[in-house]
Amino acid sequence: MRIGAVEMPRNMSFALTTKQIMDETKTVTRRLGWWFLKPGDIVWACEKCMGLKKGEKVKRLKKIRIVSTTPERLGKMTYGECYKEGFPELLPSEFIDMFTKRMGGDYFTIVNRIEFEYV
User: Fold this and answer.
1) CATH number assigned to the domain comprising residue 41
2) Is the pTM of this model over 0.90?
3) 76 burial level (CB within 10 Å; 0-12, 13-18, 19+)
4) Which pairing describes strands 42-46 and 10-13: parallel, antiparallel, or unpaired?
5) How far is 56 from 22, CA to CA, in rounded Å?
6) What is the pLDDT of residues 76-103, one digit of tens each?
């Protein structure tokens, strides 16, 4: 988002993984959108960005820098990727079930795998 001549970082919601963001144990997120991101972009990881009730404000947690974005099939999920997503206790199939119940899609859905680092 641009305000005047200054580029303002966008807000990305991490409502389901707020703890992992605060602990800095999450380094990858999968999204059905955010295709405009590119390496080097700075984003605010927030607790909740949309669906705020009257008087609620966005709670920013941490700034993150995008390392890479890769379109990939959701079914490519591995144990290592569950760990990077902040869910080391889940099997890949359990992560896919959780993702599709909350976000839609299925095993064959192409998602945006976004790798990031903390600023």
Assistant:
1) 2.30.130.30
2) no
3) middle
4) parallel
5) 20
6) 999 999 999 999 999 999 999 999 999 9
